[in-house]
Design brief:
There is one protein chain. With 345 residues, the protein is an alpha+beta fold. The protein has eleven helices and eleven strands. It folds into two domains: 4-103, Phosphorylase Kinase, domain 1 (2-Layer Sandwich); 113-333, Aminoglycoside 3'-phosphotransferase, Chain: A, domain 2, CATH 3.90.1200. The protein has helices spanning 4-12, 55-70, 120-138, 171-183, 228-241, 247-262, 270-273, 276-291, 303-308, 312-317, 327-333, and strands at residues 22-23, 31-37, 40-48, 78-79, 88-92, 95-103, 108-109, 193-196, 205-208, 213-216, 223-226.
């Protein structure tokens, strides 16, 4: 918890006082507060500066989110401080803090939405939001190299988790290396590769079920990667929480709706649909290496517990696909229903 002086200095950066702040849930490394100003709601974030998320990294993140907001993507756009800056830094004692603010997203956190309340319209909105962000990414250019954003393999994330030393030399390590190596041969061009969210699952956007709208936040893992990575993350996450046994049938249903929304904004080509198994496997192996050591086998209800269920390690070691699906066939089946190109950014 920030001390009173730090909290007051952070609040004043945005023209309010610490008494006008109220704590919000959801912060891990960061301290997160809500506040109201001029009749609008905002979120204030106070983050200890470290090697992963210092002031420069936060500026690059918020510059990207500001571009998304300016071009019509449904995101929680950043708010500049009274001094006109995207990021403020405050030193308190020996620690430096990165301070920023964004508009507060309406609705409820998507991961808290009961599964039966998810609709095809929401899946389409999820896809359309991804397509819009990726369409904007195709033309995103910054003059300042510091704002360009890191490459996908230059930051720790679900797509790029370091291999724990205790797994060195195991079959898991071999699968980890193989999953990463496959990506090295993939094309890198603005149509397929650019700024992505990097962690595009249901804990990182709010939904309004009645209007089938979503608002994305938490771009801490944004980076330059293949756009198909965001699609893989969405499918991966939904399959973890899907409560029934017909995973393949649901995957087809989800992707059908998601792709219909996505292609309103950007083309989705068969070649990239064919890369989904590789992206899903990369996620599966990386997430396993991130959580296996702390997983309680008795836990079957948390997200991690659901992910680890079903002999996860054995499936990885045997090279079993995360979900057995003809992804190109799913896209082909939609050829009469979806356009071949999205709208220009």
């Amino acid at each position: 918890m920030p001390d009173a002086e730090l909290l007051e200095r952070a609040a004043q950066c945005y023209g309010v006082t610490s008494e006008e702040l109220h704590p919000l849930h959801g912060g891990t490394a960061s301290h997160v507060y809500g506040f109201c100003r001029d009749g609008a709601d905002f979120v204030l974030r106070i983050t200890p500066s470290d090697g992963d998320l210092d002031a420069d990294a936060m500026r690059a993140i918020l510059a990207w989110v500001r571009a998304l907001d300016a071009h019509g993507a449904s995101v929680a756009g950043p708010v500049v401080s009274r001094a006109g800056r995207l990021v403020e830094t405050i030193t308190s004692g020996a620690q430096t803090y990165v301070v920023s603010a964004v508009k507060r997203a309406p609705g409820v956190l998507a991961e808290r939405l009961p599964f039966e309340q998810w609709s095809d319209a929401l899946f389409e909105a999820w896809g359309q939001t991804a397509g819009r962000m990726h369409a904007i990414a195709q033309g995103y250019r910054v003059e300042d190299a510091a704002l360009r954003g890191p490459e996908w393999d230059g930051v720790d994330s679900c797509f790029n988790a370091p291999l724990p030393a205790e797994l060195a030399g195991t079959s898991i390590a071999q699968r980890h290396a193989k999953a990463r190596e496959y990506l090295r041969a993939l094309p890198v061009d603005p149509d397929s590769y650019g700024m992505i969210h990097g962690d595009f699952h249901a804990a990182n956007f709010f939904v309004e079920p009645d209007t089938a709208t979503i608002t994305v936040f938490d771009f801490d893992d944004c980076c330059r990667g293949w756009y198909i990575m965001d699609i893989a993350m969405a499918l991966f996450d939904m399959l973890v929480v899907y409560p029934r046994q017909d995973r393949e049938a649901f995957a087809v249903h989800f992707l059908t709706s998601f792709a219909r929304g996505y292609t309103r904004e950007k083309a989705l080509e068969p070649f990239w649909m064919a890369q989904l198994p590789a992206m899903l496997k990369l996620l599966e192996v990386n997430l396993y290496t991130m959580v296996y050591a702390d997983h309680d086998p008795a836990d079957t209800t948390s997200w991690i517990g659901k992910f680890m269920a079903g002999e996860r390690r054995e499936r990885i070691e045997r090279g079993i696909p995360y979900v057995g699906l003809d992804f190109v066939g799913v896209l082909a089946a939609l050829s009469q229903d979806i356009p071949r190109s999205g709208r220009p950014s």
